[in-house]
């Protein structure tokens, strides 16, 4: 059956392989069982690692307000340089780390990175001067840079694209929880005081680094390398999970990646770099992270400048509440995004929450209203991140192209760290009008970049319906309408219907070796869509509506 656009969709022959797992009801139960096991064994560990990551990069913000600058003898500008150098090395390490991940294996690489930056964080607690502070922060960036792109890539080897937003949302909630947890932990550790010749802020870094090291060691024993090596899955569950992933693969028409296609090629890296969606999403993410990192690094300073907290310890406690609220909202938004199967459109509604927060806090002087706006600032930004991470991954085909687009997006986005570190200088106290206004402008820019990407997705899908399509190298080509009609008749003559409804026909018996059929828009390789896959048809997904 044809769509109104005249395009027919053809079933991936691999779809029929799921039939060996029983009827639809049994497959549904298998799906729920596999996802539940993955969710309870993998996600908590990744969330813990990500919590440690955010905790160890932003804990200097808590250390600052209880004496770090004074004890090291550094100026406010030197402190900002120490923050900025972290993001320089962080960005430089993201893409190489992601390309190494597959060869090194996730079970080894992710725990190695975690234990390494745990040790480095502990070392930060022993620095004595400006040079040591900058050097250790630079090393911390190298170690932490590979974690987030590695985890996104790692999750894509266990979950279908439509399952990812909620899962990434769940572990990204740890970023906002790290702010809440970090504030509480800093409040307690600061009470240790100068024990053993160490100031209170040093204990924050040493203890949190030690906790990270322990989590890294634990992750080695918890995280599996792949579905096949997951000891908590039965053999049937492993095979079923693998088949689901193959059907969700947008790269190959037969649902698999050949050894040649899965091998590293610089052409795959080039395709990732030239992908327009990378630049739309990466620049939007850059703007969001500029605000997010500013918030994480300077929220204690902002709250302290409001004047209603009696001391530094009370400031730590007041900083907990906005993060806790943001964590809850982030999970809700990720769930809604997966249910609606929308990414960009959801962000068009979440980002304005943060925009309102920054617009108000930049223009009012009432400390209680300003504090209230920090809830909107945190919620709007944290809730947007899972959607923007998954959106690009959904539309990237092939391991190394996906690795490139994911790492490139994050490398560009994390340049926002440079904006964040210099955005709230001490001379702008107590209102920080300039810093709030800069983030406000960046978030408005991000909103428009997301809108452009939504429109770009719609245009590509509309062009496909009108006869444009992509070959195996994603190059746009035209196809003679008469030839398309001939190919359609040829398919119908030799194929067998296995399922049909108002929107779609599933066929078997199609000769996929015919080059004209494989390159015709009847069989599309990748769909650039604002929606996650609703039906897996020849590695394609339905277009955005």
Automatic annotation (TrEMBL):
PROSITE patterns: MFS
Gene3D superfamilies for this protein: MFS general substrate transporter like domains
One GO cellular component term: membrane
Domain Major facilitator superfamily (MFS) profile: 42-464
Membrane-spanning intervals of the chain: 108-127, 133-156, 168-189, 201-223, 278-303, 315-337, 344-361, 373-394, 406-426, 438-458
Similarity field: Belongs to the major facilitator superfamily.
Taxonomic classification: Eukaryota, Fungi, Dikarya, Ascomycota, Pezizomycotina
Topology versus the membrane: Multi-pass membrane protein
Species the sequence originates in: Penicillium brasilianum
Keywords: Membrane, Transmembrane, Transmembrane helix, Transport
Cellular localization per UniProt: Membrane
GO MF annotation list: transmembrane transporter activity
Name of the protein this chain belongs to: MFS transporter
């Amino acid at each position: 059956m044809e769509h109104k656009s005249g395009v027919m969709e053809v079933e991936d022959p691999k779809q029929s392989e799921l039939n060996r797992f029983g009827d639809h009801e049994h497959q549904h139960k298998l799906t729920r069982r596999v996802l539940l096991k993955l969710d309870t064994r993998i996600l908590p560990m990744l969330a813990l690692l990500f919590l440690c990551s955010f905790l160890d990069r932003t804990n200097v913000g808590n250390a600052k307000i209880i004496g770090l600058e004074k004890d090291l003898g550094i100026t406010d500008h030197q402190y900002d340089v120490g923050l900025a150098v972290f993001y320089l090395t962080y960005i430089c390490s993201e893409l190489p780390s992601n390309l190494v991940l597959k060869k090194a294996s996730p079970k080894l690489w992710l725990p190695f990175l975690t234990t390494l930056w745990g040790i480095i964080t502990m070392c930060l607690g022993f620095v004595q001067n400006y040079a040591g502070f900058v050097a250790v922060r630079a090393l911390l960036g190298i170690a932490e840079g590979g974690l987030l792109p590695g985890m996104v890539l790692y999750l894509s080897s266990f979950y279908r694209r439509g399952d990812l937003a909620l899962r990434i949302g769940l572990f990204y909630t740890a970023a906002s929880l790290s702010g809440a947890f970090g504030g509480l932990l800093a409040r307690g550790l600061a009470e240790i005081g100068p024990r053993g010749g160490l100031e209170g802020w040093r204990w924050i870094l040493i203890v949190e680094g030690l906790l990270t090291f322990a989590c890294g060691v634990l992750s080695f024993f918890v995280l599996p390398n792949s579905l096949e090596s997951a000891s908590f899955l039965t053999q049937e569950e492993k095979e079923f999970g693998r088949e689901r992933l193959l059907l969700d693969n947008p790269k190959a028409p037969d649902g698999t990646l050949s050894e040649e296609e899965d091998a590293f090629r610089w052409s795959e890296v080039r395709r990732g770099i030239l992908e327009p969606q990378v630049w739309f999403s990466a620049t939007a993410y850059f703007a969001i992270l500029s605000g997010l990192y500013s918030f994480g690094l300077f929220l204690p300073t902002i709250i302290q400048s409001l004047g209603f907290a009696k001391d530094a310890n009370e400031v730590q406690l007041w900083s907990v509440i906005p993060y806790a609220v943001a964590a809850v909202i982030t999970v809700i938004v990720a769930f809604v995004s997966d249910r609606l199967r929308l990414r960009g459109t959801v962000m068009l509604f979440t980002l304005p929450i943060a925009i309102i927060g920054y617009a108000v806090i930049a223009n009012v002087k009432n400390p209680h209203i300003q504090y209230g706006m920090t809830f909107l600032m945190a919620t709007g930004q944290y809730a947007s991140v899972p959607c923007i991470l998954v959106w690009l991954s959904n539309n990237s085909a092939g391991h190394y192209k996906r690795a490139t687009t994911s790492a490139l997006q994050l490398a560009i986005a994390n340049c926002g760290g440079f904006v964040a570190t210099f955005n709230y200088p001490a001379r702008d106290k107590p209102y920080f009008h300039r810093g709030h206004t800069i983030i406000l402008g960046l978030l408005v820019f991000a909103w428009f970049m997301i809108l452009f990407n939504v429109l770009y997705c719609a245009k590509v899908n509309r062009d496909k319906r009108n006869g444009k399509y992509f070959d195996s190298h994603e190059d746009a080509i035209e196809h003679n309408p008469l030839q398309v009609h001939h190919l359609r008749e040829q398919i119908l003559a030799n194929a067998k219907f296995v399922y049909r409804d108002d929107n779609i026909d599933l066929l078997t018996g199609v000769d996929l070796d015919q080059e004209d059929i494989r390159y015709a828009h009847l069989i599309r390789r990748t769909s650039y869509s604002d929606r996650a896959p609703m039906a897996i048809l020849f590695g394609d997904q339905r277009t955005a509506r």
